[in-house]
Design a protein that fits this description.
8 helices, 0% strand, mainly alpha, 2 domains, 232 residues, 82% helix
């Protein structure tokens, strides 16, 4: 009798046959016929539901792989950007450094040979200034590459992002790229002796410290929610 009751509940809830009509069917055609008739339909729906749940589980399993890695790409990009735009940087004192030692350091920093020759031709004071600018440009170049890596990873995995996560990851990506470009333009202006360059660099530094953090925090909460962090 239990299977009949389950069938009755299923038909009323999902197929929409009125209860009165259903009981008339039971009266005239009997329990056995209904069990046979609707068992096939129930099995069909059960199969469809199982298929749907399997697909959902596979997507969620992929989220467990993609979201932590995407968050990691984002933090790597942010760390590189902070290092590039930091208002406080440490540089070695190269003003009294012998040419051979200076050449070794520049080679270690992957400075092109033509720039090495240029630096070695400068006065001691100018060497220090030129070296610092080369390091600054190198750091901003590295940060841009990290942001590009983050951007590409997001684009490759958009399928596994909910709308709110896609929006926030895109915000972080766009803002970090904008900061990097503005700082790079400011560094170029500073090299050319323009005061506006310092202002651009300061603004980029402030945005890195303040504007990006609320977005990162929002993403962290959304990722933990998707991964059911509190249930772990």
């Amino acid at each position: 009798m239990d299977i009949v009751l389950n069938i009755v509940k299923y038909i009323i809830a999902y197929i929409g046959i009125p209860a009165g009509v259903l009981f008339l069917l039971l009266k005239f055609w009997g329990k056995k016929w209904l069990e046979t008739y609707f068992q096939k339909d129930l099995e069909s729906h059960r199969y469809q539901l199982n298929t749907l749940f399997n697909r959902i589980n596979k997507v969620h399993e992929k989220e467990f792989d993609v979201l932590p890695e995407m968050f990691s790409y984002m933090i790597d990009a942010l760390d590189a950007l902070k290092a590039a735009t930091s208002a406080v940087k440490e540089y070695p004192n190269i003003m009294e450094m012998p040419d051979e030692r200076l050449r070794e350091i520049l080679i270690e920093k992957d400075v092109p040979e033509y720039k090495i020759g240029h630096i070695l031709s400068l006065s001691m004071k100018e060497r220090q200034k030129d070296y610092q600018q080369i390091i600054n440009f190198k750091k901003i170049y590295e940060s841009k590459n990290k942001i590009i890596d983050f951007h590409k990873f997001v684009e490759r995995n958009l399928l596994f992002l909910s709308d709110d996560l896609q929006e926030q990851f895109s915000k972080a990506d766009g803002l970090m790229w904008s900061i990097a470009i503005n700082y790079e333009v400011g560094e170029e202006a500073t090299r050319d002796g323009e005061r506006e360059g310092w202002k651009m660099k300061q603004e980029a530094f402030k945005k890195t410290q303040k504007d990006i953090q609320p977005i990162i925090e929002q993403i962290r909460k959304l990722v933990q929610k998707r991964l059911r962090f509190k249930e772990a």
